[in-house]
């Protein structure tokens, strides 16, 4: 009986870990920072259209975490695989066997189609905005395009200032959290692209965005002795800021193209 309990406990830990992988890119603070940057770059027409679609919740930072907020509701469990796409070493996006349940690339394109479709209901469009706002942020977290073999970096164990962690979690929230800033403070600090730079940043396709993240995470798998702290933060925080800035600017570009 004791051995059976130990086996059950081990399986439960693995199961919970699996459920929690790849779900909280950037954490709530990072997602809201992405959405705040996007809000800064929306056209007046796009903002008006969002008001009509979202009603009282027509503020992107407040809907940006919806896909994480509902993860405990079983009726939304089918959305789990939408948060990421995993590409192992030796694979390419073109040769990858895509998940039949969907992935982040497919879902972003589908949500864009929902918003463009005049026959889509207001409810469908509202959900599409929430999903797009979240997933464009997810796509810019490098380990949401990490290796399938290590669950997008979740199995790459490290310590963060002496505390047990993994490389996915470090990039999700721990580097951002270490600064102690609000989402609006982060957005204000990172959002400094010129109009010319904005145009270039927004020219990226969804696959381009994925390829950027994949190129980054491929190098980020080298964690040395795994003891991460001040030096790692110093070396990588600028990349975190850039990914948040790019995600927000590109989200605005997508919404402006469709609604503005």
From TrEMBL:
Keywords: Disulfide bond, Endonuclease, Glycoprotein, Hydrolase, Metal-binding, Nuclease
GO BP annotations listed: DNA catabolic process
Source organism: Flammeovirga pectinis
Record-linked CDD domains: S1-P1_nuclease
InterPro entries: PLipase_C/P1_nuclease_dom_sf (IPR008947), S1/P1nuclease (IPR003154)
Name of the protein in its database record: S1/P1 Nuclease
GO molecular function: endonuclease activity; hydrolase activity, acting on ester bonds; metal ion binding; nucleic acid binding
A Pfam family that the UniProt record links to this protein: S1-P1_nuclease
């Amino acid at each position: 009986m004791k051995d059976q309990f130990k086996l059950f406990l081990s399986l439960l830990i693995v199961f919970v870990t699996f459920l929690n992988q790849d779900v909280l890119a950037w954490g709530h603070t990072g997602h809201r920072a992405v959405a705040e940057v996007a809000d800064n770059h929306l056209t007046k027409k796009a903002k008006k259209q969002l008001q009509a679609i979202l009603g009282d919740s027509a503020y992107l930072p407040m809907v940006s975490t919806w896909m994480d907020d509902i993860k405990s509701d079983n009726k939304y469990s089918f959305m789990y695989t939408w948060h990421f796409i995993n590409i192992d070493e030796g694979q390419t996006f073109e040769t990858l066997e895509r998940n039949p349940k969907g992935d982040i690339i497919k879902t972003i394109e589908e949500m864009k189609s929902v918003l463009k479709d005049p026959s889509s209901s207001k409810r469908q469009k509202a959900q599409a905005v929430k999903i797009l706002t979240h997933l464009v942020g997810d796509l810019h977290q490098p380990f949401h395009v990490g290796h399938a073999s290590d669950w997008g970096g979740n199995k790459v164990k490290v310590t963060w200032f002496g505390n047990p962690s993994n490389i996915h979690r470090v990039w999700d929230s721990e580097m951002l959290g270490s600064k102690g800033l609000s989402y609006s403070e982060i957005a204000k600090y990172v959002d400094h692209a010129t109009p010319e730079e904005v145009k270039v940043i927004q020219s990226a396709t969804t696959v381009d965005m994925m390829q950027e993240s994949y190129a980054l995470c491929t190098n980020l798998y080298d964690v040395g002795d795994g003891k991460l702290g001040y030096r790692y933060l110093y070396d990588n925080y600028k990349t975190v800021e850039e990914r948040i800035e790019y995600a927000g600017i590109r989200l605005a570009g997508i919404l402006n193209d469709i609604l503005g």
